[in-house]
Design goal:
α6 packs parallel to α7 (223-233). The chain has two domains: 3-110, Enolase-like, N-terminal domain (Enolase-like, domain 1), CATH 3.30.390.10; 114-369, Alpha-Beta Barrel (TIM Barrel), CATH 3.20.20. It is built from 14 helices and twelve strands. It starts with a strand and ends with a helix. The strands form two sheets. Strands 4, 5, 6, 7, 8, 9, 10, 11 and 12 form a nine-stranded mixed beta sheet that branches. Strands 1-2-3 form a three-stranded antiparallel beta sheet. The protein has helices at 46-61, 69-77, 87-107, 112-115, 154-167, 190-207, 223-233, 250-259, 272-282, 296-309, 322-333, 347-351, 378-382, 409-413; strands at 3-11, 22-29, 34-39, 123-129, 171-174, 212-216, 240-242, 264-266, 286-287, 313-314, 341-342, 363-365. The longest helix is centred in the first third of the chain and has 21 residues, at 87-107. Helix content is 37%, strand content 13%. With 414 residues, the protein is an alpha/beta fold.
Length: 414
């Protein structure tokens, strides 16, 4: 069995939940087996991302036995005389590698989790960001007005949290701290600090012990600002404090971890075991690899094994489409130190595949179908095309921000 052909697909989720676009890959072997994958967050236009994926396949994958996962990884990791963590190339590789595992599962008539250690968990716990009423999961019977901004209004945040917990989630996440700026870490204003504390307080009072609170940030803060915020959040016992400083400030993230009782997590902007090892050495206790960027299924399995040696856990990050989500789920089923998986439930996530993975009251039961257990819905993908040169998958605020306490989110973003 040899890898023979590649197709790439781009689709645009109508709501923007999961990113501005998704890049899917379909590989075909010389004996007709097809596998699908998904690349996460390649920081170029989608059409260019697809060409990068196709070029990488043509150079390193075409004609190869798909069982040679280690060889394929080392070739791409070393491409262009690099041999170092490269978030762009690993995003390219990860989507291809996920498709390879889908092929291997189908060839051996086994779900992917059975090929990477076997099922350890019978079901895996999931969490969700809080979204407003009009973006809530299909089937949710929203109670309350749905008015207000659930990121910046404590009452709206508490209402949303109650609805998500009643729906079945036992953990919910939000990031009320402020815009994600290209300038890197900054000192949050007193307004931003107070808003963050008020939101978490309101959510904890609403849900009690029924759900964990995950405090998501995206590297907005300096080390000192993150420690100030952590002290405000500690009374409400969040399960984690996520990526408090920019990902290139791992020593700073480590200082935050040492200064707070809240577990510090990070990983969505890291790639390969090298960078995750640095996070573990810094004191991060929950790793959040995004399997569409971290190096694919096998490399992320290695990251999980590294975490075991540090008594740390894995909570895969997902802000993408359903294929990378399924790959992360298979990894989770075979990982003893798995904690929780991010999930996104929208009509479009379900529609772009012919049959999504099951989700039952906050948990995903172990899939039994060969491979990932998914197939793309080409018609739905084609009906939501990407316009060349459009937005990147994710973008940051291009405005320089300061810590003047009078500035509000509306003033900054407006």
């Amino acid at each position: 069995m040899k890898l023979k052909d590649i197709e790439t697909f781009v689709t645009v989720p109508p709501t923007g939940i999961g990113g501005s676009f998704w890049v899917f890959v379909r590989l075909t072997t010389d004996n007709g087996i097809q596998g699908i994958g998904e690349c996460y967050g390649i920081p170029v236009s989608a059409d260019i991302a697809c060409r990068m994926v196709e070029d990488t396949f043509e150079r390193f994958f075409a004609g190869e036995d798909p069982h040679r996962v280690e060889t394929l990884f080392r070739r791409v990791y070393s491409a262009g005389f690099t041999q170092r963590p490269d978030v762009t190339m690993m995003g390219v590789f990860s989507g291809l590698e996920i498709a390879v595992w889908d092929i291997l599962g189908k060839a051996h008539e086994q779900p992917v989790h059975n090929l990477i250690g076997g099922r350890f968990h019978d079901r895996i716990r999931t969490y969700s960001y809080l979204y407003p009423k009009h973006l809530s999961p299909p089937g949710m019977d929203w109670k309350g007005s749905g008015a207000g901004d659930c990121y910046h209004d404590p009452d709206a945040a508490a209402e949303a949290a109650l609805n998500y917990v009643d729906f079945g989630f036992t953990a919910i996440k939000q990031d009320p701290a402020g815009p994600y700026s290209f300038q890197g870490g900054r000192e949050l204003s007193l307004t931003e600090l107070s808003r963050s504390e008020a939101n978490v307080k309101a959510i904890r009072e609403a849900v009690g012990d029924r759900a964990d609170i995950l405090f998501g940030t995206h590297g907005q803060m300096t080390t000192s600002s993150a420690i100030r915020l952590a002290k405000r959040l500690e009374p409400y016992d969040p399960l984690w404090f996520e990526e408090p400083c920019p990902p290139d400030q791992m020593d700073g993230i480590g200082k935050v971890a040492a200064a707070t009782s809240i577990p510090v997590s990070t990983g969505e902007r890291l790639t390969t075991k090298i960078e995750f090892h640095q996070a573990l050495k810094a004191g991060v206790s929950i790793l959040q690899p995004d399997i569409g960027r971290s190096g694919g299924i096998w490399e992320t399995k290695k990251i999980a094994v590294l975490a075991e040696a540090f008594n740390a856990q894995i909570a895969p990050h997902i802000y993408c489409g359903p294929v990378a989500h399924a790959a992360a789920a298979h990894l989770a089923f075979a990982t003893p130190n798995f904690l929780i998986l991010e999930s996104i439930l929208t009509d479009f996530h379900a529609a772009v595949v012919q049959k999504p993975l099951a989700w039952e009251a906050g948990y995903i039961p172990a899939p039994t179908e060969p491979g990932l257990g998914l197939e793309l819905n080409d018609a739905v993908i084609a009906a939501h095309p990407y316009k060349t040169g459009g937005r990147l998958h994710l973008e940051m605020c291009q405005t320089v921000l300061d810590s003047a306490n009078t500035r509000t989110i509306g003033e900054i973003e407006g």
